[in-house]
Design a protein that fits this description.
Blueprint: H1 5-22, H2 31-40, H3 42-45, H4 53-57, E1 64-66, H5 69-75, H6 86-89, E2 93-95, H7 97-106, H8 112-127, H9 145-161, H10 166-173, H11 175-182, H12 187-200
Antiparallel strand pairs: 1-2
Region (Disordered): 128-194
Biased composition (Acidic residues): 152-169
Length: 207
């Protein structure tokens, strides 16, 4: 999987923004408190959605869970001018109630839908532990193993504090595991059904 230039450029900035919020000058983990403050500031940050989307997008960290990974995998390979609509993309996402309130605020802005699509892609990449090749540059890996582990630990702590089952988070992040657990279909049927669903939503079908 190769990222589009758009997501390749923004992903490192998004992760760096989260890292900046994670600890204070004494090394204490203050991510939860700082994210809460950032969410309160969203109405005042709308003007930054186009110029610095990663600085606003972190307010949604932990608010999206992905029930159709194939859609997000396709999204992060696209440039901004090839995005699907937000109405299409949100069918593949479960939005936490607190995040839905922020979504409603963002959608009052003309650039809101584009920003939300960007945010979903960035959050998906942040939460995913898959190895990716950044394209078209020869940039360093998106995150080191240590950084990914730190984010996983933070996500687990955050999910517990918010009362969300972390096991369910993993299930929604990986649709293959979810389907296998429920015994809904075979791997072949899942791939075919996923491809059919993507085609219906306007995504290019992969032969």
């Amino acid at each position: 999987m190769k990222l589009s230039r758009y997501f390749a450029n923004l992903t490192s900035s998004y992760n760096a923004e989260l890292d900046d919020l994670r600890t204070d000058s004494e090394g204490n983990n203050v991510l939860k408190a700082r994210l809460a403050k950032k969410r309160e500031q969203v109405p005042q940050l709308l003007m930054m959605m186009s110029s610095a989307p990663e600085m606003v997008a972190v307010a949604f960290h932990g608010g999206f869970f992905f029930k159709n990974v194939m859609v997000l995998e396709s999204l992060v390979t696209r440039e901004a001018n090839k995005f699907p609509s937000w109405e299409t993309l949100k069918k593949a996402i479960i939005i936490e109630p607190w995040a839905q309130a922020l979504v409603n605020t963002v959608l009052t802005d003309p650039d809101g839908e584009h920003f939300l699509i960007t945010t979903a892609g960035l959050e998906y990449l942040n939460r995913s532990n898959k190895s990716r090749t950044v394209h078209p540059s020869n940039a360093d890996e998106i995150a080191s193993d240590e950084e990914r582990q730190q984010r996983d630990d933070d996500d687990a702590e955050y999910a517990t504090e918010e009362g969300h089952d972390d096991d369910n988070n993993d299930a929604y992040l990986n649709s293959d595991d979810r389907v296998a657990d429920e015994g809904e279909t075979t791997e072949y049927d899942l791939d075919r059904a996923g491809a059919d669903w993507l085609a219906e939503q306007g995504f290019d079908r992969k032969e």
